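Why do we care about 3D structure at all? Because function follows from shape, and shape follows, mostly, from sequence. That is the central idea of this module. The next example makes it concrete: a single protein chain, its amino acid sequence, and then its structure expressed as tokens.
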Amino acid sequence: MTEKLDVVALIGSLRRGSYTRQFVHALIKLAEPTRLRIEIVEIGGLPLYNQDDEEHPPAPWVEFRSRVQRANAVLFATPEYNRTIPGGLKNAIDVGSRPYGKSVWQGKPAAVISTSPGAMGAFGANHCLRQSLVFLDMPALQQPEAYIGGVDKLVNAAGEITIPATREFCEKILRSFESWVRLTGDSGARGL
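And the structure:
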């Protein structure tokens, strides 16, 4: 049997009880029977990126870069703040992209899921993030597109997605992402 793919999940909202975080936890439960192992990597403790600190990078930067580097793929899950991604997520992207020429993102397959209590599902943040992924040379899953509206009503107290059609859609996302990672990633080089 093929080993599970190591996927790091970065959550744009830093709030402990955020809807996006609840949704990612529900996705992790859905992924359990698949060949994806999804681990949330926290970004809230990353010091703001400052190139002056590269000579002696803060320990959280080094740990973050190392963890992302070891992963087969990255799942970005973000709400929308002012029609774009939250500052903490942008900082994590910057920390991982430096020092110049040593980006941990390059060539790493990615998926983007955006969430919102509103109907548009954080469409603006999703596409803003995708612009960065193009520059970072991260092949991003194109279909199915994942704009999750009404996220505040989707996850119950047990951490499960309550609407069957949404659960099925999320299972489809996970299957598609696994196929995408195996097609575009360097999983063969990692012994998978």
